[in-house]
Amino acid sequence: RVEAAKEAEMEASLLAQWQHEHILRCYEWFYDGQGENSSVWMVLDLMDGGDLHSLFEQRRRTLAGPFDASFVRRVISAIGSALSFVHDQGFLHRDVKCANILLSRSAERIVLADFGLACAIGSQGEQETKEALGTPSYLPPEIACGGCHSPAADAWCLGVVSFKVAALRRPFEARDDTTLRMKIVRDEPNKLPQDTPADVAEAVKGLLHKIPEKRMLPAEAYAMTHESLIARPGSGSLGCWGCYRATRRVFWTAAGRV
């Protein structure tokens, strides 16, 4: 619990310092209680559209079909921009996944959230493998082979998110984590739908490059999809509702903009 409190305090501190359109903002944070019984409260942006994972699962269950191309571009552009900013600040997110991407109602705004596993680039935390930190289906191949986390690993996770939104399935699928890890390291990802726009397909392919040094950076994915959004304006909005639940002993309240 003490470790969880430290993670929450660091997360609140980072979110309070950073002001970026696509990063969840913390307006205020404070402790409630003392010692092991203390809890961290954060006053955050109101994101009343739920999280991307819930939206993904809902769409799969209802057989609603793929997301609109404009929405896919907006997800890649928004999170690519957010990660580029985080890396420029000297930090790694280390837990980029659909569940940590929040939306406002009708998806007018898309933000990256949950920085509880974030660490400074070059710090001791960077040496930890993702095996003990994140979600198996987002595991970068270099981490699966015992390597260290890096900005390129965050980029891979963005690639997984992008693939899921574009294809409405995972890039690598297996019945158990061991087989999944082997597929991530050895196999090419599943095929994207044939009607996937060229810029989206290129961004996904670049972000899911097996070799970290050759992998597309989040800033490049942002630039590619943002340029297409400007050239092909569209709403890319969705009518969706959901809720965001913290997994640590942290209590979050939402602040609406006035």
Q: What do you see in this structure?
A:
About 40% of the residues lie in helices and about 10% in strands. It is of the alpha+beta class and about 260 residues long. It has a single domain, classed as Transferase(Phosphotransferase), domain 1, CATH 1.10.510. The longest helix is centred in the N-terminal third of the chain and has 20 residues. The two termini are about 35 Å apart. About 5% of the residues have low confidence.
The first-to-last residue Cα distance is: 35 Å
* Count of structural domains: 1
The percent range for helix content is 25-40%
Tell me the CATH architecture: Orthogonal Bundle
The proportion of residues in beta strands is 5-15%
The poorly predicted ranges are 237-252
What keyword list fits this structure?
258 residues, alpha+beta, Transferase(Phosphotransferase), domain 1, two-stranded antiparallel sheet
Entry summary:
The protein has helices at 2-17, 52-61, 69-88, 141-144, 151-167, 177-186, 198-207, 218-231, and strands spanning 26-32, 39-45, 91-92, 101-103, 110-112, 119-120, 250-255. By secondary structure, it is of the alpha+beta class.
